[in-house]
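Please check this protein record:
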Amino acid sequence: MTHPLKTTDDILTKDAHLIQSFANLDALKQNDARTAIVGAEGIHVTDSEGNKLIDGIGGLWCVNVGHGRREIIDAITEQLNTLDYYSTFYNFTHPAAAALADKLASLAPGNLNRVYFGNSGSVANDSAIRMLHHYNNRLGRPNKKKILSRMGAYHGSTHLAMAMTTPGYSEEWDTAADGLVYHLMEPCAYHQAEPGMSDAEFLDVLVEDMEKAIHDIGAENIACFIAEPIMGAGGVLVAPDGYHKRMREITAANDIKYIADEVVTAFGRLGAMFASEDVFGMQPDIINTAKGLTSGYQPLSATIISDEIYDVISEPGAMFLHGMTYSGHPAAAAAGLANIEILEREDIPGQVQVTGKIFENALRGLGDLDIVGDVRGSHFMMGLEFIKDKATKTEFDADDNVGGKVAKHAQDRGLIARALGNSLILSPTLILDADNIASIEAILRESISATMDDLKA
C-alpha cells in the first residue's frame, strides 16, 4: 500500500500533531529538526529525502535481526488472517501465546518457567514489581515492598518504572513511588571509582554500598533489587567483573528477589539469548525482556518468573488481578516466534560473539581522538562519552550538546546514532558484517573530528 503522505513537507505538516518521546518539544518546532523515516531493509533505513542511512541504533535497541525480514512479516500476516485478536484474560488462551510462552520457558535459565506478556519493557518491569508485592502479601509479609535500584539505571517510562530509573530522567516530572525506591551507587568506574582504584576494589565499594542499604532499610522491608546487566539509556554503564554474581549472592542471603532487566540485553545483543546466566554467570528470580523479543516488528514484552514465585501467587484463594488488553496479542506472539526461529536458525547470537567483538574493538579504537574520554559497553551495545579534558576528566557543559553535534554529523554522513547529552550510543542491528562495521567506524571518526573542529570555531 502506498502511503498517502508522499513528501517530507506532507509528513512533517501532519507530524505537528504527534508528540515525540524523550524529545525537546520546543526544539522540534524548528525547521529541519525532525527526520521522517519512510522505509527500511537489512541494516539500513531510508528517510523522506531518499537518503539511505545505516541504522546504528537498531530502531531503539530492538531490530536485532534487521529490517524487512519476510519470515516475521508473513507470520504476522498469517496470524492476523487466522486469529486477529483474542485476550488472555480469565480462562482464555490461544495457540500463539501458548507456544511463545513455552519457547521462552525453554530458553530462560533454570526454573524461570512462567511467562506474563505485556507490550513494553516499562510494563514488564511494573508487572514484576506488582507480582512481587502480591507474592509478599500472600506470604504474610506486607512490609516487604521496597525496591533497590541504581543511579544510572533506566527501567522505563510508566510511573513506577520511572521511579526505579535514575532520577535525572524525572527532572520536573513526578514519579509514583516516593519512598518506595532506593537508588544504590552508580556502578561506573569511570566516574565513581577513586583514582588508581582497581576493578576489584571498586567492586568492594559497590558491595559495601548495597550491604549498607540493606542494613539501613532492613531486609525485611526490601522486596527486590532490579538491575540491567549493562545499563542502557543511562549511558551504557558497565559494572566491574563479578558484580552481578556478588549482588546475587547478597540478595539471596537476605531473601531479596533479583530482577534482571534484560529488555535490551536479551536475544543476541551480547551474544546470548539471555545474558544473565550465559554472560554474567548468575540466575535471577525474574527476567524482564522486550525489544529484541520481536525485533521490534510488534510491541511485546515478557516478565519471566520462577516456579517458586508462581507457586505462591497461584495458590488456592489467590487472584491474579493484573492484566493488559493486549497481553500476548496473537500477532505479537507470532512475531516473537518467527523472530526467535531466525535467531536460532542463523545462530545470530553465535555470530555476535565474533562480529560484536569486532564492533566493540572498532569503537574502542576511537579512544585516540582528543574528546573521546571513555568507550564502554560490550558487543553491539556501546557508548562513547565525550570529555573536554581527558587527563582531569573535565566534562563539557550540558549546553555544549557534544553528543548531538556528533550525531548530526554522523547522520549527514549516512549513520543514525543516538545522542545522550555529551555521549553517543550505538546499538545496531545484529547482522552487521566486518565491512559494515568498518563503515560505521569511519563515519564516527569523521563525525567526531568534525565536531572537534566545530568546538574550536
